[in-house]
Amino acid sequence: MLVHEFHIPLNMTVDEFQVAQLYMVVDASEKNTKGGEGVEILKNEPYDNREGQLGDISPISNCKIPRNRGQYTLKHYYCKSEIPGYISALCPEESMTLIEEAWNAYPHCLTVITNGYLAKKKFSISIESLHVPGLCDIANPLQLTKDELKGREVELIRIESDLPGQNSPDEYDPSVYKCPKTGRGPLQRGWTSNTSPIMTCVKVVRVNFDYWGFQGKVERFIRDRQRRLFHSSLRQAQCLSGQCPGWLVAISYMDRRALELAVTSGAYTNFDLVGVLLLSAGAGLFLQVLAIQLGAATGRSLAQHCANEYPRVISLALCCLQQIAIIGKDMEQLLGSAIALNFLLQMPLWAGCILTCLTTFLLLTLQNLSGRYFILFLGLLLMASSLCFLLDFSLEKTVWSDVAAGVFPMISSFNAREAVNTLSTLVIPHNLFLHSALVARHSHRRTSARIVKDSIVYFTIETGIALAVTVLVKIAVFGVFADSFYSPSCSQIPVQSACLSPATALYSDKPIYNYYAWAPCIVVNHEVGNECPRCQMGTTQEYGYCQQLELDGAGTAIQDVLGRTAANFWALGLLAAAQASAIASTFAGQLVMEDFVNFELPSWQRIGLFRALALIPALIFAEVFLTNPNENIRYGTWLNMLQGLLLPFALVPLFCFTSSRRIMGKSLVMNQQWRISGFILIAILCSMNYYLIGLKIDFAHWNSTEYGTLVVVGGLYVFVLVYIVVIAPWCIIWSKSKKEPEDLMDSLLIIEEESTE
């Protein structure tokens, strides 16, 4: 039996490699499933064999089952094309199917490959892996037996170098690649002595082919093939690690607006809209993937394409509109942080806005000092926010049958508005510009269609995982407010309300509603008459009053039900989420300005400019409007309307560019089915936003000045909208005469040529 031990150092952490492994598995499955051959997954399930529950020996592969807990997979590989001709000519067809069992208990993994035609004792391949932080200096890391140690050969694989006899370098070459975000690379010979972080993949390959005349040749062939596979896949993982635009984009899905919507949805509709939340996350992922495809295929952001494809006047108008949307979103985050600081430290709202602005300015300097620390800090903010909300959720007595029932939502007249609000906010305009810009800056090595498609798959997986985390956290927020404040009686009032404790409702200066008469109750000196009925608060045994719940009162409401500790967790989670979203929106503003008009300033000037643009309006709103609870609701409504009005100016250009064969190339342009799906989704989103805006605007109380302003601003809005919705798509999708910049056309020609070979 051949025993060969490979040591492969990588410039990443063990946790980062675990994420990269997910991409490698998907990528390998995609490449191996073609030409009628590929992989058939028979089982993919958790296992627990810490106490020998599964036995000692596997009946399928006749190997020892590890005493640990992890994920078990059983696969069939159909691999006739991978076997040398001189062997396949002598073998029957059924012998060219391999059976793979794998026990993955990261950082230890075991894979055993056998063949149903050959005897298990005659043929087997075992690959045992251990992922060790730092350089592995352990003499026997995988505890080989004495007999195995006698025949073991240890080999160091250097990912920065080509393998001996390699005809051409891989498409992923760590010796020339430098990650623009983490600053890692390029890796030169001897990098392990002066570079961090470092981890080592230790892989022991055991090959047994006990057939006379073929043993040595087949065992060496399998060893060499595994060496090439390890070398290629880990070079690929090294070049794709550290790329995390999906997590930066996901931060915006945890902003003040999203959390407020989760608060009201839980308090007003219980878990009825969990399925709507999942649907909106899936639709949001679809639109983010379009942004990924545009950035990866062309190496240009959505803003750069707008500047190139539209007339100068239209592109400048789009730039101004997107900056307004980003400033509006930034104001929400500043005030979200201010609300959290006001609850935690009793800090005035205006002071909280200034403090948040200053901390954002300081934290964004991390990007210039080290991209790796910048991304790490944003990740810590997102983790802290998620942990705080999950801790609050753990204090509740959730009725899980209600959660399961909400996966299949029942839309009624009482929850229809909240459902429409949830769907209408599934995407944030500046996120599409931000995501395409980040992917474009990571995708500068577009030397072939394969690299482009690999990048798209990797970014899609990463974004999907990030959005799944945000959905999980939003469901936790749903649970906190549904279990504590939902009342069927209050949810049926035309002014939808939650059931808040008397200590919260009577001292909030907001109207309390009679759910029988559908009218406000009379409150005098923080007391209400007996004619105002009480409601049961969620799953608790307490009773309260029907009243609207907004984000600024959520901390107090939680404190009166779950205690000060739970309220502090909520406020800290809100603070972390708002701070991270403020950083992300400021970063988006910088990229949009640079890409639209090629406007570059020193980093501190850019950060200061965008901080000032958001701070001044936020201070005005904080001092003038937020002192009145009713004006707070009105303020939030207007900011939400602003995002809805500007959404088409991101969705329509993105759809048109990704539908253009001239821009995307023949192999990456959207097919007909995706075009139809995208068109329907965008039409529904824009229609819902305009419908909600129409419901919220009360024209009856407008004066002549307001009408005049509406005519002027509305006229400009309609002009730009008609151009990008009606005129520009025909020019972009079907035009074949417009010349592209030379570097873009060269890359697209490479893609098209490879796709036709």
Automatic annotation (TrEMBL):
Question: What residue stretch is flagged as signal peptide?
Answer: none
GO molecular-function terms, A-Z:
cadmium ion transmembrane transporter activity; manganese ion transmembrane transporter activity; phosphatidylinositol transfer activity
Please list the GO biological process terms of this entry. Answer: iron ion transmembrane transport
Q: Where in the cell is it found?
A: Membrane
Q: Topology with regard to the membrane?
A: Multi-pass membrane protein
In terms of InterPro entries, this protein maps to:
NRAMP_fam (IPR001046), PI_transfer_N (IPR055261), START-like_dom_sf (IPR023393)
Query: Which residues span the membrane?
Result: 347-366, 373-393, 456-481, 569-588, 609-626, 638-657, 678-695, 707-733
Domain Phosphatidylinositol transfer protein N-terminal, residue spans: 1-240
| Any Pfam family matching the protein | IP_trans
Look up the domain of life of the source: Eukaryota
Output a single Gene Ontology CC term carried by this record: plasma membrane
The alphabetical list of record keywords is:
Membrane, Transmembrane, Transmembrane helix, Transport
Write down what this protein is called: Phosphatidylinositol transfer protein beta isoform
Q: What is the lineage of its organism?
A: Eukaryota, Sar, Stramenopiles, Oomycota, Saprolegniomycetes
